[in-house]
Structures are given as C-alpha cells and as structure tokens.
Amino acid sequence: MEVATTNTFKTVNKLYGQLVIGPPGAGKTTYCDKMAHLLKKLGRRIIIINLDPANETMSYKADIDIRQLIALDEVMVHYSLGPNGALLYCLQYLEKNIDWLLNQMKGDHGTNFIFDLPGQVELYCHHDVVNNIFSKLIEKANLQLCVVHLVDSHHCSDAGKFISALMLSLSAMLKIALPHVNLLTKVDILKKHMDKLEFGIDFYTDVLDLNYLLDSLDGDRFTAKYKKLNAALVSIIEDYSLVSFQLVNIFNEDSLMSVKKLVDKTNGFVFKAEEGRHINSMLACAMGVNEPEDMNTL
C-alpha cells in the first residue's frame, strides 16, 4: 500500500538590507540614492530609511525618517547639547523606541532596506547604540543585514591617512558584529591622480604587505615621531587580517552593479529562493565568479 507523502515547508518572510556608514563626505547619501535607483531598476522593492536626524540635504525621498520621531534641533536646545551629543541622544532614543521603527518596516519576502546613518564615526566605533538597534531589528524583523562602509579614496594619497582609514574600518567591523563590505569611493577622482600614489592600487584594495606602509610612515617627518605607535597599529591590522576594500564610482552603473553583487552575497540575498535556488549559481557565488571588474570599468 502506497502512502502519499507531501513535503511541507514553513514560509519564512525574509527581509534584506544594507547599513550604510562612513565618515562625513564619503558619499553615503549619494550611495543610498544611486543604489536604491539601481535596485528599483532591477525590479526589487526598496525601502530607504534615514537614521541621520541631521541629514537635511537628502537626494532621495526617505520612506522612513527618524526626524519624524525626534528632532535634532529640539534636543540640542532642550538638553543644551552640541551636535554630536544630540545625535547620540537621538539614536539612543530610537533604541528605546525601536517599536516605532519596527511598526513601519513592513515588507514582502525579499524586500531590500537601505539604512542611511550619520557620519559621526564615534556612534559606531565607540558606542554600542548602533549595534544595539540593529541587533533588535535582526531579532524581531527577521532582517538579514550587512554593513557597507564608505571611505573616501583620497586617504590612499597619504600613508598616515590610509592607516587611519584601516583602523577606522577595523574598529567598525569589530564593534558592529555584522558582515562588512568596505568601499573606497570617488575612484573616478583617484584614477586621475594614479601617478601620485606611492603604491599600486592593488596594495590599497587588498591591503597587502603593510611593512611597506610602515616604511613610508617612518620616512615621513611628521609620522616618524610615532614609530612605535605606527608599528603597533600595523601589527593590529595584520593580526586581524579582516580589512580589504572594493573600489566604487557611485555615478557609474557598472561599478555600482559590482558592489550590488558583493552586497547580495554578503547579506545573503543571492540565496533568496527566486534567485539562488540553482546549485550552479550558488557554487558560482562561493567560487567568486563574476567578481567586480577591474579599474577600467570604474
């Protein structure tokens, strides 16, 4: 006697997102705008969330805006705080009122969220507030996230600046317990000044042997004064061996598409039922097929 069997699977409503961070001027808001436009062009449902209460020059229309919850100017006046202190207060207020955000984050399976955060690096390098907010979102909203950390590529022009960018990226990676994609932005400008770089571009993207960087630091009249500190910083970065960069020209769709592919792998969207059900595509992803193009496409 044959017994009919049926396979039943529990439907899971998975949401995906990217948490966009980086120092002021790195291009976060522009990236959010251009990436959202690209994803919409590909037919995805996109929700942009502005979590920067000081962001008054957005090139996109935020679907959810922290300024609807709390006003930075009012916090500064009421509590006699400066801009940085008020920003921290606003995010801590959001953390305590996380249900306000959760109630608005309604999306179908596969919805992509883009979170635009403030440029004050201490918020995610020295405080737990950002990590706390997104830990709650991951737990309660079934959200799969990765961090997209933008760094201005002009830091490659100086060894001291580059070591600072490396330490900032490493600190953010350790403080925010999420997969990271580190981007060097404004690469179109970098290409015009390639002859002024001390090392080849692969040195900066792959973070190759930093002893060469250490030699450069020791040869500089200013940074040579901190020889032991330089050596200690280089040692920390090499010991963790976590930081590498992807080049991006935000205004170039091919370049942005390369970043999109990398983000999809990092936050797991590539394995979404509709796009990742074929074993060949999964293996191609694992083996790094269709990796971002070289400098000529940026």
Description:
With 298 residues, this protein is of the alpha/beta class. The protein is 47% helix and 12% strand. Strands 3-2-4-1-5-6-7 form a seven-stranded parallel beta sheet, sandwiched between helices. The longest helix has 17 residues, at 159-175. The chain is globular, with a radius of gyration of 21 Å. The N and C termini lie far apart (64 Å).
Report the sheet with the most strands, covering strand number, pairing sense and barrel closure.
7 strands, parallel
Q: How are the strands of the largest sheet arranged?
A: 3-2-4-1-5-6-7
Distance between the termini: 64 Å
Task: Count up the helices.
Answer: 14
Low-confidence runs (pLDDT<50, min 5 residues)?
Answer: 275-279, 291-295
Strand content: 5-15%
Rg for CA atoms: 21 Å
Shape summary: globular
> How many strands?
7
State the secondary-structure class.
alpha/beta
Average pLDDT over all residues: 87
Helix content: 40-55%
What is the chain-wise order of helices and strands?
EHEEHHHEHHEHEHHHHEHHH
Give a nutshell description of this structure.
The chain is an alpha/beta fold and 298 residues long. It has helices at 28-41, 72-79, 83-96, 98-104, 122-125, 129-141, 159-175, 187-192, 201-206, 211-219, 227-240, 253-267, 273-276, 279-286; strands at 15-21, 46-50, 64-65, 112-116, 143-152, 180-185, 246-247.
